[in-house]
Amino acid sequence: MPRRIDADARRREIAALAAALVARRGTDGLSLRALAAAAGASTTVITHYFAGKKELLQSAYHAAVDQARDRVREAPGEDDPRRLVALCEAVLPLDAPRAENWRTWLAFFGIAVGEPDLGAVQRRRVTGHRDLIADAVRAGQRLGTVDATRDPDEEARTLLALTHGVAVEAAFDPDDWPAARQRALVARHVAALAHPPSREDSPAAPARESS
């Protein structure tokens, strides 16, 4: 009796393979033939699950997002003082699979500018992670590991900008940004949150528009 195929699982598997191909070849290098070869299937099988290249690209992007979300979910709980660092490290390219994940995102950034659906996914991904970091800062304040005068939302923005900036550099220059250097930079910044911000570190108030 032939083995039944879980259609949803197979679709997710193909989307993950597509994301990996995008990481190596860019979005223009994702072809049905190359994906079929990677999946050990025919192009007919690929078109059975995806109506066209646009849908395939969207699914590949979502697959990359899901991979990062799974790592974020592995972070310690809210009462664990390690959570803040863990949330930052979850999106750093600390190993080959994570670096591939970032190259997939970077390949899609240009497309997301002109694709409202992908742009919306990107915004939700970033703001959702920022909110988790802000909550971890607040938890740190309750635990006494983060200074009470720190603004959680502003610190979350800073940490997000820091980790994303490091990730982009590490994705293109992994020799200059090994995992140890990435972790050390995040650890130094998080450790500094235990102290009140200096005047230079305090976020500037938005400038008022002249009437």
Cα-atom radius of gyration: 20 Å
Q: Approximately how much helix is present in the residues?
A: 55-70%
Q: Biggest sheet, in brief?
A: none
Low-confidence stretches: none
Order of helix and strand elements from N to C terminus: HHHHHHHHH
Q: Would you report the number of β strands?
A: 0
Q: Based on CA inertia axes, which overall geometry fits?
A: elongated
Q: Compute the number of helices.
A: 9
Strand content: under 5%
Structural class: mainly alpha
Distance between the termini: 77 Å
Short description:
The chain is built from nine helices and no strands.
Question: What would you say this structure looks like, in words?
Answer:
With 211 residues, the chain is an all-alpha fold. 68% of the residues lie in helices and 0% in strands. The chain is built from nine helices and no strands. The protein has helices at residues 7-25, 32-39, 43-49, 53-73, 83-89, 96-114, 116-143, 152-172, 179-192. α4 crosses α6 and α4 (53-73) runs parallel beside α7 (116-143). The protein is elongated, with a radius of gyration of 20 Å. The model has no long low-confidence stretch (mean pLDDT 88).
